[in-house]
Amino acid sequence: MAGLFATDSEQIDRRTSRSICDAVGERLRQSLRPEPRLPTHLEQLLDELERRERDSH
Fold first, then answer.
1. Does pTM surpass 0.70?
2. CA distance 57 to 46
């Protein structure tokens, strides 16, 4: 289990640690950001178009 912990020579300072955490947080915010939704009216029009295509077949 000793391999899981950093030795004194491997530790990083608080400023570097904070920078890494900030960068990881920003990456997560970008990748987990919800996709923007279409305005309700456009969603209704697309639903109507899809319904008409199904009905015509």
1. no
2. 17
